[in-house]
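Example 4.3 (complexes with small molecules)
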Amino acid sequence: MTSVNVDLNGKIPNNVGLSEDAKLQRALEGWLPRYLDWWNEMGPSDFADKPVFLRTAVSVDPGGWAHYDYVRMPDYRWGIFLDPGNGPATIKAGDDAGKPAWLDVPGEHRNALRRIIVTQADTEPASVEQQRLLGHIAPSLYDLRNLFQVNVEEGRHLWAMVYLLHKFFGRDGRDEADELLLRRSGNADKPRILGAFNQPCDHWLSFFAFTMFTDRDGKYQLAALSESGFDPLARTTQFMLTEEAHHLFVGETGMDRIIKRSAELQKLDPNGDVRAQGGIDFDLIQRTINYWYTYSLDLFGGEVSSNASTFFATGLKGRYREEQYSDHLALEGSYRLPVIEGGRMVENDVPLRTAMNEVLRDAYVADCERALRKWNKTLEASGSPTRLTLPSRRFHRHQGIYADHHFDPQGNLISAEQYAANQARWVLVPEDNTYLLSIMKPVYEPGKFANWIAPPAKGIEGRPMDFEYVKVHA
Amino acid sequence: MQDVAHASAGGHSHATAPNPVVDFEVQPRSYHHWKVSYEGPIARVAMAVDPAAPLRDGYELKLNSYDLGVDIELADIVRRMRFEHPEVRVVVLTSANDRVFCAGANIHMLGTSSHAWKVNFCKFTNETRCELEEATAASHQTWVAACNGTTAGGGYELALACKEIYLQDDGNSAVSLPEVPLLGVLPGTGGLTRLVDKRMVRRDRADVFSTTAEGIRGKKAVQWGLVDAIFPRSKFDEKVLERAKALVTAASANLPTGERKGVTLDALHPERTSNGRKYRHVELTWDDTTRTASLTIHGPTPDDVALVERGADAIVRAGADVWALRAFRELDDALLQLRVNHMLVGLVAVRVVGDPSCAQAHDAALIKARDHWFVREVMLHMGRVLRRMDNTSRSFFAFADKGTAFAGCLLEVALASDRLYMLDDTSSPVHLALSEFNEGALPMHTGLTRLQCRLLGAKPQLDALVGRRELLDAEAGDEAGLVTVKLDDIDWDDDTRIAIEERASLSPDALTGMEQNLRFAGPETPDSKIYARLSAWQNWIFIRPNATGPEGALTLYARPERPQFDWSRV
Ligand SMILES: [Fe+2]
Ligand SMILES: [Fe+2]
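Answer. The structure with fe (ii) ion bound is encoded below.
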């Protein structure tokens, strides 16, 4: 497909032939004003009129996907892009692997695909809602700009998913697209679909942990969908992954900068007391890791799942980088899973297909372990004796086979009483928020950073550190 | 993605598991799966299925999914609510799980069950739901479903049995019947029937709904008539309670008489032997080699009659010891034992022992006291037990020989049987007798009396019988159209033996089908459709390769392989 780049109302960069697609135009014309209403109500609060140095994707060409300029967020050009791909696509996984991919939705998979797309789509506006107040306590203009970049791109991801719903799912798809704007993160009556997207994200430590761990779940879900036999979904998610990489960068380096700064403050303080120096102590950082990592693990779904099996078997989803496997059927193998039987841990072999959520989770866990090693290198380089760890994937779970039991961070089965007695040491508690909010005051002066975080290694797109990434006084 | 009805931690085998001996009697203090609480006229029944307490090994009851054990407790709750809690006007059926109301029948249980087990399971659950509906219709106890989470498959069918359905509106909770698209079988506990026949959902919408695995939620569920209203999560309990209170007022009009003080149903404690169960008034014995059983019911004694003749207050004081309640509870248990624990028994020889005049007097006295809520409940219970007999897939031959007394409510046992053999011996005369119980108090699922059903093409005979109270000897019984075969004492032993042996030699499947077709002459009702149309189709689908063959959808559910259908329409 060639890049068309003709807009609806001069607003929507795209390569999906929007100008020739009357049906899609009509659907989007109805949805666009509702989307803007949602953005104005639930998007970043109070910064609508501030020019932000943002990256906008205007085409899928190598030079087009990262166009930098000052933009006011409500004027952001949320585009619709499919990865151009190379040649005719095939189904990557399951019983029909190798056959031509579907260019339209097969009737038998319509409901399942719609559900998959809606579930993914729901996470995009959810995180914008979770992060809407963070601009008021940003540690620097650099970070403020990164927050807004993430926000507008999550908005674009919603567009990408809504495009699929409008284009391929008719009336039902339009209804679902509308409902995506009606649910609200953390609202008891209209919650977002998945648990982690209803957890409050009140401060920047949670923001960095969220973009590190929860956006990383998104990366793996998108990667599995980019192996879909439904070609428009595969190509849409492929393109989203390029933007997602930046969100993960924000999270991983944000955590790294906090860790680096805490190590400096640890050294600075005569008693090695980070809090005495107004920083974020390592216990609190560890609790944050424990909290967001485990909520993010939940997002992968049940350890043994008939849905996961069906999605793989029917080619709706693949594994992470399906091409690395030689057997795309996955009918033969099994997966060894620790389970709880009669109050103790035993290992069960389950059919590989039913363990596809766990296979994807494995790739995610390995990626998180890599980041932990990097952060510990930072500690090492700073001369700090502290080391951070990832908790067991059984710890603090709310979904799946471990959710009904209690585990310590090492993954040992413990009693509910033991868990309750240690909870405040293991995961975020309300007092943590009180402390973090007490040290997080906005820093809007170009080149300046809050005391609790180190500056980044370099600026955005070759700009200097004291560049005015957000014109807050405009 | 979260699985809606996923119920296994894996490692399960799909071999058919051996069936345990099932006990149908349970006590509230030992419920595993339900929490029942009472507040004045409103009771709350919360499903809280213990995953680790299945009836058989080999599956876990996750996400409030149920098996026969869960349903036996529910049936017990419905029954005790009527007898032990007559003060209750509205029962709110809900879930103790905050995400799932009920995920339906446990799929791994179904997948690992023999055909017979599945059929018995479905039949019992259907009977429980009909009982629940009857409580709403006849006992001034209105059941309301408060679906506070995912309501899938059998979970929605359970809700459909309630008078009203309320669904939590949280953007996620949906009602659904995913059986056809996910499992290749039917929603087998009345779902399809109640959708179009009870809630009168348009058939085209019902078609869409029943093929959409994820179901329908929110406003659309209300618009389509799938639920009565939706309430937001934060207001759900409050709104349901509001509605329950309004229904209490409605259900309190025209209440039967009597102080609303419950009658406890004690345990039956039958004497068990290797080949029998002996209750106080009922005795069941079986012989697996001849594949026959003998069911004997002792009619009311003069003492029983005297008690009932003292009136409603005396009857309530006797409580669960009243013959009419005790004997029919025992008969109910015996029928369930036969169905589930004695699969080889094909023919049941039925006898009623006692004095026909005594039975008539008993019936007349009971009918006289019927305005009292307890007497009314006793009679409704008798009707349910007889309907259970109508639906039992065994050949029943009633034998009216010396000492028997098929009379009044116990004549129904003969009329529910497939044949009645009567001894014609002037030296030891045997009598049949009618009472008001044969004339409308104990209806079949079709709404007819068993006499009407039997004499559908013989209006003059029927008219002649109504109101007739003299004892009928073999001659008169035969003329009245009640007797299948009249035998003198010389022929009795040989002819009845041959009849039994002949019956026991025929194909059990064909007999079940034949009997179920012959027993229900006359019109259809939603209930009869559930037991006939819906169950028959379901049972056919259950044995079809597309469901239960090695590549069938039910077999392969939650397994890595996808089902392979034989596409030819049959
Ligand atoms: Fe995203
Ligand atoms: Fe993201």
